[in-house]
Amino acid sequence: MAIGPGQVVHHARGFAQVFGLDPRVAALTFLVDAMLFGGTLASGGLLLPVAVGAGGVLGFIAYRAQRRWYGDDAEAALIKGCIIGLLTAIPTPLPAVLYVPSAILGAVHLARARWARRLGAK
Question: CB of 70 within 8 A of CB of 20?
Fold first, then answer.
């Protein structure tokens, strides 16, 4: 099958690459969300604009980290960064159920990639 100009080729990606989150991003998300929720709760909602801004910054950090550390393409990293930023900006404690499984997948993916590089170098 010939690929013509303007056609996009999608490469097969594994489950861990699609749904994985770098463990460092997940840890940062947990810490930032806990601090923002505590501050918003203690201030009676007055720090909500700060939470929204911090969510945006965290989303950008997640985007850059996913691109650099995890090897995501731009679109996948942008989607993951936007999700992290949006969920962090919502003034509720982010349940660990949302990002801990992604962090575990990310850790497995990174460990397998490191292992494969070591085997290829020998």
Answer: yes
The string over 75-96, giving b where at least 16 C-beta atoms fall within 10 Å of a residue's C-beta and e elsewhere, is ebbbebbbbbbebbbebeebee
Q: What is the DSSP string of 28-77?
A: HHHHHHHHHHHHHHHTTTTTHHHHHHHHHHHHHHHHHHIIIII---HHHH
Q: Would you kindly state where each structural domain of the chain is located, as residue ranges? A: 16-121
pTM: 0.76
User: Which residue in the block uniquely carries the two structure tokens 């900006």?
Assistant: 89
Task: Give the C-alpha distances (Å, rounded to integers) separating 67 from 78, 117, 119.
Answer: 9, 19, 24
Question: What is the tens place of the pLDDT at every residue in 72-102?
Answer: 999 999 999 999 999 888 887 766 677 788 8
